[in-house]
Amino acid sequence: MTSVEPQLLREPPPFRRDFSVHAWIGIKALSDAGDSIWTIALAWTAVQITSPAVAGIIVAAGTVPRAIILLFGGALADRANARHVMIVFNSIRIAVLVTVALWVLAATPSVIVLLIAAIAFGVCDAFYEPSAGTISRQLVRTEDLPSYSAVMQTATRLGTMGGAAIGGVLVAHTGMVGSASANAVTFAVVVAFLAIWLRPRFALPRDDKESALRGIARGFIHLKDAPTTRTLVIAVSGLNLAVGPAMGIGIALRATDQGWGAEAVGIFEALVGVGAAIGAAGIAKWRPRREANAGFRALVVQGVAILFLGIGPIWVVGAAAFVIGLTAGYASVLLSSTFAATVDTSFLGRMSAITRLGDDCLMPLAMAGFGALASVTALWVPFALYGAGLACLMVFPLSNRMLRTMSLRPAKTSPNAEA
């Protein structure tokens, strides 16, 4: 496994006393709470004003421009100052949310308004996410990546849980205006923190000044030359195609079908957050030796839980949502820390972009397909098909010897080794 330590700018304190990083984790959790409020508002509003199939398209609309632009965002992340990129595109997100809130104040929500907002967020995400994906390597040492990921995942899942609990009530009582405004405030806090406080401790290698297309091409050439990175990128790409539609549009459809109301959607999202926080926090106390193998096994269990979202009474759906969160938090910490420690830091932005590309290229079809199946079959059918699909997909990484045996622990004593 390849793990290259970035150039040290200033010595970070021990992670347990790293108050600057702890503050960043808290700010990120607040931002995720706002995102959860917005996501619930978008899905719930879409379900109320249009058909299930069109609602699925609205929820997934942002993935289309993101898929088109994402590789350019990855090339930018490996060339520019990641913190500056994050500030710029979070500021644009604030402008989009304020515009939506003002528009909805003047007129009722429409499909066009929701589509434009989702697409604008997708464009921002295409540039923001690859840069944000490099931040952990700029803040903490390689050996602290699992601890950082565990605490970050725990905090952000708690933020998501809190936002979801508030989001269902907020959209029910204040509509899209209140939800968009709340998320705009959280983004403003993130921008202020990035601009005033957060500073990197490690300098990542910067890419040469060349055309974006050439930089993208060199990223794919790197995949050819780095077999461990190539295998991991292929394995983790597209993992959200099952759980994304099930949670993004499926639970809103179930709540509408059963008459549970928007509050139930918020409760289900909150249960996902609770489970994910527990799953992530467990890694800080107990960490498997073969992180990738354990993470992919957890996703098999997640596939089974997706099935149960579509059947049974409300408590069964709640239990399934909790298990989905538990496995997501556990797997996310293990796979993200493995990815960050393995990938050559000079290509980290582009590799992060490539891993998201599988989701973004296929997510609109997955969302629309889920909604279409729900329209023409029993509602439990898309849950069953998507859950089984995720479980079957895990056969690939779990049958790969390299992924089954991969471990971060040897990298602590031999950071430049290739295994």
Characteristic key phrases:
419 residues; mainly alpha; Growth Hormone, Chain: A; two-stranded antiparallel ribbon; 17 helices; globular; disordered C terminus
Question: What's this entry about, in short?
Answer:
Helices cover about 75% and strands about 0% of the residues.
- Please bin the fraction of helical residues: over 70%
Q: What is the CATH-assigned architecture?
A: Up-down Bundle
CATH topology: Growth Hormone, Chain: A
The computed structural class is mainly alpha
Instruction: Tell me what portion of residues adopts beta-strand conformation.
Output: under 5%
Order of helices and strands: EHHHHHHHEHHHHHHHHHH
Count of the domains: 1
Shape: globular
How confident is the prediction overall: mean pLDDT? 82
The CATH class is Mainly Alpha
Instruction: Give the neighbour order of strands across the main sheet.
Output: 1-2
Give the number of DSSP strands: 2
The major sheet is characterized as:
2 strands, antiparallel
Radius of gyration: 20 Å
What is the CATH homologous superfamily assignment?
A: MFS general substrate transporter like domains
Task: Report, as a whole number of angstroms, the end-to-end distance.
Answer: 4 Å
The helix count comes to 17
Q: Any low-confidence stretches, pLDDT <50, length ≥5?
A: 410-419
